[in-house]
């Protein structure tokens, strides 16, 4: 409960988002899904992002940070080489190790936009703006 409170304290809504890319996916995908309050928020956001961004097949990668091992970390690092990839990181708060892995990948220079939702994280590699990290919550 305290972790959620601490997250919401620093998280923002659409107000004040200066990135057109993040503003677009927040207002068109993330917040509408939050408002619907589906049973599986993560699944809804994954499908919503894929549909909205119209990504080519094989360019959206869903990684469960609760189940990462050394081989997975290497494979995830390799995905950072293709700027057309979008990484969806599930269970980033599963454990301290999961949160550390999330922070590590969000800090990588290739991660142009890292978006932290309480339930998950999103990493965009497209060099369309300066590197930024966002904490987003339900409006």
- The CA-CA distance between the termini, in Å, is 19 Å
Radius of gyration, in angstroms, nearest whole number: 14 Å
The low-confidence parts are: none
The succession of helices and strands, N to C, reads HHHEHEHEEE
The coarse silhouette is globular
SS strand fraction:
15-25%
Side-by-side strand order of the widest sheet: 1-2-4-3-5
Mean pLDDT: 89
User: What summary fits the major beta sheet?
Assistant: 5 strands, mixed
Which structural class do you get from the secondary structure elements?
A: alpha/beta
Helix content: 40-55%
Number of helices: 5
The count of β-strands is 5
Structure, briefly:
This protein has 139 residues and is an alpha/beta fold. It has 5 helices and 5 strands. The protein is globular and about 35 Å long.
How does this structure look, described?
With 139 residues, the chain is an alpha/beta fold. It has 5 helices and 5 strands; from the N terminus they run H-H-H-E-H-E-H-E-E-E. The protein has a 5-stranded mixed beta sheet with strand order 1-2-4-3-5, with helices on both faces. Helix 2 crosses helix 3. The longest helix is centred in the N-terminal third of the chain and has 17 residues. The model has no long low-confidence stretch (mean pLDDT 89).
